[in-house]
Amino acid sequence: MGDPLSDVACCRLELRYLRGASGSEAFTRAYAESTSRDVGELPIWDAYVSAAALSSMSQWGLPAEREAHMRREAEAFLGEAIRKLT
After folding, report:
1. For residues 84 and 86, what is the distance between their CA atoms, to the nearest angstrom?
2. For the chain, first and last CA: distance in Å?
3. Eight-class DSSP state of 57
4. Do 55 and 35 touch, CB atoms closer than 8 A?
């Protein structure tokens, strides 16, 4: 239920945590090539997902080093989404 791009954005952020921006972008290219779905609104979902993660991440019980890494990646992801939207 809902917009499948929200799931794509969640996956993109999770991959970014694990594989960096290049892993996230490789997934996005593969997704876009395998579907007829318009991915033009993906930056909106990227911004939503990264902002939600940043607002609640402190409650996830992560080790401090891991949380710091994930915060850096989510902040970068959010910044990229905002630049694409403006």
Report:
1. 6
2. 28
3. G
4. no
Q: Which distant-in-sequence residues (6+ apart) come within 8 Å of 19 by Cβ? A: 26
Asked if residues 49 and 9 have their Cβ atoms less than 8 Å apart, the reply is yes
Structure tokens at 47: 């911004």
Q: In 3-state terms, what secondary structure has residue 4?
A: helix
| pTM as predicted | 0.93
The overall longest dimension of the chain from CA atoms, in Å, is 40
With contact defined as beta carbons under 8 Å apart, do 63 and 29 qualify? no
pLDDT in tens, 58-82: 999 999 999 999 999 999 999 999 9
CA–CA dist 41, 1 (Å, integer): 17
In angstroms, what is the C-alpha Rg of the chain?
A: 13
State the helix-helix crossing angle for 64-85 and 42-56, rounded to 10 degrees.
150
What residues have CB less than 8 Å from 36, skipping those under 6 apart? none
